[in-house]
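Go through this fold for my students:
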Amino acid sequence: MISQAITPRELDRRREQLVDLQRYLADQEREYAELRRRVQGFIDRYVATLGPLYMELDALESQLYCAMRYLHEALARNGLDTRGPDSPKATAMPQLLVLPAGAPLPPEPEGGLIQVGPPPLKTLYRRAAKRLHPDLAPDDAERGRRERKMAEVNEAYATSDRARLESLLLAAGESMVKVRGGDADAVMEWLRSTERAVQGRLRVVQAHIALLTNHQMHALGESVERAEKKGLDPLGIMANRLRAQITERRQELYIGQRLQPESSLTEAFLRQREQRLGGGLSAARAP
């Protein structure tokens, strides 16, 4: 029986709200997928164009670190206190977070949402006839059994004996929900819990859309696209800047690997490099 506090109209309204919410969630997930596809597409271009140059620059920085470390330690042994070089850090290539898979929705109550209240007596009679009609019997023995059962069905229907008709249907294999109706309270609770699950998923999807929208590669990608429409080549310019840095590091490495710790040029070289990196060389002669 439908709970007096829950009307069929209210159930229908909540079902429609749930369908609308799920439709909106699907739209948001499609928006996320399309946005991620665009941003990831630009990241792939960015990495393909600049990734090898960054790797080469990182390798040179590692070699420079070893050379500078050697000079620093050699100067320290000679009584000159210098600031040691900072350990190099590999350039991190941009990556996107992956939207986690959504949790499965709560299972629907038995019988789903098709029939909530108990069906009318006439519906029960028709269902009994479909299950027990003698013409559906595969043999004479079964036909005789069905004829006896149908006689009971006809009598129960004629006397409006709902309990007996339900009992005959259940014995014939009909589901409890189709015979006695669903639980409106259970259906409403399913609707509420499903709404909460869909809303939770929606918040996760929208949070990832916001992360993508605010991602630095999204802004950079849009800037690059606008520049390219004007005939410019911003990725090419960035690549040329990296090549210039690579050339500079190669020159520094060439000098650093050939300097002798006893040379007066060594301290000046370290000082110049520290200033370029934004630091300073703290030097004090030991007494």
Q: What stands out?
A: Confidence is low (pLDDT under 50) at residues 1-5, 279-287. The chain has two domains: 8-114+185-276, 118-180.
